[in-house]
Write a structure and sequence with these properties.
The protein is of the alpha+beta class and 121 residues long. The protein has a domain at 3-80: S16 Ribosomal Protein, Chain: A. It has three helices and five strands; from the N terminus they run ββββαβαα. The longest helix has 23 residues, at 98-120. Residues 111-121 have a biased composition (Low complexity). InterPro entries: Ribosomal_bS16, Ribosomal_bS16_dom_sf.
């Protein structure tokens, strides 16, 4: 059975609250899970002790059993020092979109025309 350590959403609309659970990867996000491992409340401030609570003994047990943490849960575990920090790279994230590039080219062309016009007089 392919196990995952992931978030299961609870809470009302616009007020998210998550349980960190060990679940079969074939089950739905908020569906059946095997064990609750902790909680995550994104509405609390980042420096709050109550924001992320994990039962580290059980998390370590499931990691030893071969469970794969989701991306967000792996970030929690990295912050807690349980899992080695992974290198993440998205080189296209900082690159502007197509329309922004077109606007920049138009602006540069207008600036070049404006610079040439007084020089001809």
């Amino acid at each position: 059975m392919a196990m995952k350590i992931r978030l299961a959403r609870g809470g009302s609309k616009k007020r998210p609250f998550y349980r960190v659970v060990a679940a079969d990867s074939r089950m739905p996000r908020d569906g059946r899970f095997i064990e609750k491992l902790g909680t995550y409340n994104p509405l609390l401030p980042k420096d709050s002790e109550e924001r992320v609570k994990l039962n580290m003994e059980r998390v370590q047990y499931w990691l030893d059993e071969g469970a794969q943490p989701s991306d967000r849960v792996s970030r929690f575990l990295e912050a807690a020092g349980v899992v080695a920090k992974k290198e993440r790279s998205n080189p296209k994230k900082a690159e502007p979109g197509k329309k922004a590039k077109d606007r920049a080219e138009e602006k540069a062309a207008k600036a070049a025309e404006a610079a040439e016009a007084p020089a001809e007089d």
